[in-house]
Amino acid sequence: MMAQRATVLLIDDDRDMRWAMRNILADAGFDVAEAEGGRSGLDRVVRAAPDAVVLDMRMPDLGGDEVLRRLHRHDQGLPVIIVTAHGSISGAVGAIREGAFEYLTKPFRNDHFVNAVQRAIARRGEAPASSAVGIRATIKEAMGQGPAVESLIDQIEAVAETDYSVVIQGETGAGKEVVARNLHRYSRRAGRPLVVVDCGAIAETLTDTEFFGHEKGAYTGAVARHRGWFEVAANGGTIFLDEIGNLSMTGQKALLRTLEERTIHRVGGTELIDLDVRIIAATNDDLKHRAKAGGFRENLYFRLAEYVIAVPPLRARPEDVAFLATRFLTQARASLGRPPAEIAPAALDLMRAYRWPGNVRELRNVMRRAALSALEVIKPEHLTDSLGLCAVAPVLPPPISTSVITLRHKVQDHIRALEGDAVVKALEQARGNKAEAARLLGIDYKTYRTKLKTLRERVETTVDE
């Protein structure tokens, strides 16, 4: 859970410098993302959707001037603050002519640094990104180039600039947060706070305090006034309720009341606070079905679901696997200081056939591991070594008959066998604890239970035969 006035991306190869800037900005109330070089920074800007970038001019992998040009091709309105050593001021001045917002020389005063960031973000708020071209480029870079992503972009474009409440449906790791951040980024609220709430982490007894805040002395331990998430976003911001299906019935009731009245008051207080807030919710469940079955408040669902966006799982868009895998591999190799590597066609075939229960997040982790073990070419065996229990097949088994079986079917059968073995071994290692087994495999609990159930049914069917 975090409340953020704005996100600032730091791109600097000096780890100590990043640490210092991160602490300064965090103390000033900003959310901070980091990248240790130009190439990783260009990748990070897609996922973090920052409101401003702080960019070092001199980096070994890609110079700051080139990074600046690429950042502005990605988002012309993104403010970029250049930080430079004394010897490269002329380069920074040139960068200003190329569209950088400002430059600061190292070392700089903390207050000057914070002030520059605040002014950059204020300018961003005056002219929020709203271009359909920007939405399309951002989502394609983050999620892929295929027809399923094109359809997703159409949904985002239709609602981004409105104040509709939106429910984003999709599996864990599919990219729901990327969609939510871009809905905010390309709305008229882009210069205001985006408040991200993990609904599964809210203790039922603290729902009102977390949502609405409390006054000093409202209860034992309330030693100072606390602003809740809704108050932080009250003046034109957006609240992103992640995994809304995990919100308790008490929390659902409080949320419904807030959406109906559009006012709140802190626990222990009487002052009414008017709300101008957009609600975006995400879920990996079928909320409409749950609402009809009584597992979620139906009246709350209809308040939230003025518009529903469906994020397709990675297995439904295998045409995007090669693009994403290549991008993740390039980023990982750059972060390791290693030259680029290629992905062998056989490895791509295996990845396209794999079902990716962890979706894009899992693919990214697979490529990061492969980047460590491979030299110049990622081969099937590198995927197996990297994935461990979740491995895809490095080598297909020899044919057992002369019948013609497609490569895709061979791969799928072998993957199914490996997945079944992984499910059983993880449960053994976790001593029967399904939640721990899911953690060991890097998948969510619900996905693990489904896989275990499917495996048991398959075993029972085999025995019956």
Automatic annotation (TrEMBL):
SMART domains: AAA, REC
Matches recorded under PROSITE patterns: RESPONSE_REGULATORY, SIGMA54_INTERACT_1, SIGMA54_INTERACT_3, SIGMA54_INTERACT_4
InterPro entries assigned to the protein according to its UniProt record, in alphabetical order: AAA+_ATPase, AAA_lid_NorR, CheY-like_superfamily, Homeodomain-like_sf, HTH_Fis, P-loop_NTPase, Sig_transdc_resp-reg_receiver, Sigma_54_int
Alphabetically ordered keywords of this record: Activator, ATP-binding, Nucleotide-binding, Phosphoprotein, Transcription, Transcription regulation, Two-component regulatory system
Pfam families to which the protein is assigned, alphabetical: AAA_lid_14, HTH_8, Response_reg, Sigma54_activat
Keyword Transcription regulation among UniProt keywords: yes
Domain Response regulatory: from-to ranges: 7-121
Domain of life per record: Bacteria
MF term (GO), any: sequence-specific DNA binding
Modification 4-aspartylphosphate occurs at: 56
Coiled coil: none
GO biological process, one term: regulation of DNA-templated transcription
Domain Sigma-54 factor interaction: 142-372
Protein name per Swiss-Prot or TrEMBL: Sigma-54-dependent Fis family transcriptional regulator
Species annotation: Methylocella tundrae
